[in-house]
Amino acid sequence: MAMNNDQQSGFSWKWVIVAVVLIGVTAAWFLLPAKEWLDSFSSWIKELGPLGWLLFGLVYIVGTIVLAPGSVFSIAAGLTFGAWGYPLVVVSATIGAAIAFIIARHLARDRVRKKVDNSPKFAAIDNAVSEDGWKIVALMRLSPAVPFNLQNYFFGVTDVSFWHYVAATFVGILPGTALYVYLGAIGSAAGGDSGGPAKWVFFGVGLLATIVVVVLVTRKAKAKLDDYGVDDEKNEDSA
Question: Do 74 and 180 form a contact (C-beta atoms < 8 A)?
Fold first, then answer.
């Protein structure tokens, strides 16, 4: 019974997070001059041509390294580049994650290790990584148990190999990235006058389908991580 309550609680919180993001984006769109800001930013980036893509990618990479919220950049990519923002974000996030991993492994290993040694949650993940390396990395990327940018540094002090880490990260971030970029792309398309109600129905159905897929994948990943003993709620309770 307790386990069912934990699962229901985790599931509820995921929906709360999704709802907060949607409400926040909508509120910002209507209450702030967000459209003007984003239009100006988008126009400036687009005017730069290929240099704009490179600049945005570099900003995303640096943001990943300094622990900035990647969801904001992912939504901005959708607003600016539409569907093409998806591969740009996936590649940039993977590069940023790889650099953070290298920093943790070779430049700040002792400092990162001290921060994670006293955490039961990270201890459980560390043990799981020792057994099934890249599989745990991929599952963690699909699960919201630990923020993405923090994972990058944590995995740097585990036994997982660099290239296994990079490959698992690339694959693991695909579903979540699709959701955020799609949110941005909807905001970009909303500025157009063509399409009428049919356009909103199309985008609404697409967004709902994307959310359903992401939630289902996340639940599967969490269930699998629970099998490895990586349960964020239980580990926090034991701390």
Answer: yes
Tokens of 139: 């599952």
pLDDT > 60? residue 234? no
Over residues 103-136, the pLDDT tens digits come to: 988 887 777 777 666 666 677 777 777 777 788 8
Q: Tell me the HSE value of 174 on the side-chain side, using a 13 A CA sphere.
A: 10
* Structural domain range at position 45: 2-237
- Is pLDDT of 64 > 50? yes
Structure tokens at 136: 């745990």
**Which residues make Cβ contacts (< 8 Å) with residue 123, sequence separation at least 6?**
116, 117, 235
Q: What's the pTM value of the predicted model, to 2 decimals? A: 0.69
Structurally, the chain folds into a number of domains equal to: 1
The one-letter amino acid code at 145 reads A
Q: What is the pLDDT of residue 166?
A: 96
The C-alpha atoms of residue 202 and residue 185 are separated, in whole angstroms, by 13
Quick one: pLDDT at residue 224? 66
137 in helix, strand or coil?
helix
85 vs 181: CA distance, rounded Å? 7
